[in-house]
Amino acid sequence: MAPRRRRGGRDGSQDGNSSETDAPKNRPPNTAFRQQRMRAWQCVLTPKLIVSIFTVLAAIYLGFGAYLTYLAFTVRDISIDYTDCLKDAPRGKGTKAPIPADNVKSHFSSSALDAHPNLDPKKMSTWHVEERNVTFEWSGVTAPRNICVISFPIPEELPAPVSFYYHLNNFYQNHRRYVNSFNAKQLLGDAVSKDVIDGSTCKPLDLDPRGSGKIIYPCGVVANSMFNDTFSNPYNEQNSTDYVMSNKAGDISWEGLKDLYGETKYSRSDIVPPPNWEAAWPGGYTNDSKLPDLKNWADFQNWMMLAASPDFYKLVRKNEHEAMKAGNYRIEIVDNFNTTVYNGHKSIVLTTITAMGARNIWPGIIFLIVGGICLILDVYFVLSFFIWKPRKLGDPSYLSWNQPSAAQAGST
């Protein structure tokens, strides 16, 4: 009897003699990789594995959290709020008044405070105001200014490196228009034309608001609002010596920031300083003053590194090599920056530095909380799986992905 022929396809073609060579050309090769038959590891979450995972996580988080907390508590620092110094402190060189205890915060060892009760910062810090001529480092101009003189004790030696910060509260540098209010080419030193600056992102501080038509250099709200209080080196009253701290670019600012700034090509007659820079440049950029050297002005570079939150610190001085001896110190502050107009506060902060930076207990606390949660879950699973409701586990070799494939079964 003749073999039965297959019926033709829809297109009328006959497939009676079809073979593997007649397969569509776009069919993937019959390999384990292309046909998704490669062996893969499947995690079986047995009680022992779960307990082991949480044990390891608890050990890591608790250990790292304890280390971070230890580092935070080894930091020694002092913070003094001098917002109301000009208003509340007595005036005159021979007069002093205690700083309110709420304005002083410090973290020193209890043993040092017990050994030197006369060096307790909260009880022994004082302030007064003097008025005398001051030469501004930025401009070289000498002018009479109010100086807030703060005296404070250090009960124990601060090991190097020692950093000096100012701390601003309730100042928002993260507003969208504020962030964009500068001209990058102008900061690089280019003499950007008046037509480009006028109406740019620097507005409303693009041209002289007094109507002269001159370009503000540097233009924009960011530069105009720069924190312009100046600080002396801490002066040791026992030894009559300064504890010298650097404020040079590269020491207190990132080295790469200098590449964003350059010496200006503007002529003095074409530019005016921002309105809030009047204290350092009274009368504008005259022949008796220096033009701002933005490339080497570290304080300005740090200010232009905008903070994400309204409560921030900026580094102003640093000593990386010499320890700060215990004793009574004095810092003179040329008080120019008014924070009361926006209900803000300003403080000075002297602090030691660890591998994780200045004092911040929250990273360690967060790690300890996560580690504690892992430890609680670990104990719960041990009690649940092995004591309260123990049960015999099935054989994982019977799981579907551990069974031989149909092709392998047929070949055997």
From TrEMBL:
Family annotation (InterPro entries): CDC50/LEM3_fam (IPR005045)
One Pfam family per UniProt: CDC50
Instruction: Please give, as recorded in its UniProt entry, the membrane topology of this protein.
Output: Multi-pass membrane protein
Q: Which GO terms describe its biological process?
A: phospholipid translocation
**Positions of transmembrane segments:** 49-73, 361-388
Keywords in alphabetical order: Membrane, Transmembrane, Transmembrane helix
Report the subcellular localization: Membrane
Keyword Protein biosynthesis (UniProt):
no
Q: Where is this region: Disordered?
A: 1-33
For this record, an example GO cellular component is:
plasma membrane
Top-level taxon of the source organism = Eukaryota
Coiled-coil residues are: none
Give the family this protein belongs to, as stated in its UniProt record: Belongs to the CDC50/LEM3 family.
Q: What is this protein called?
A: Ligand-effect modulator 3 family
Source organism of the structure: Pseudoneurospora amorphoporcata
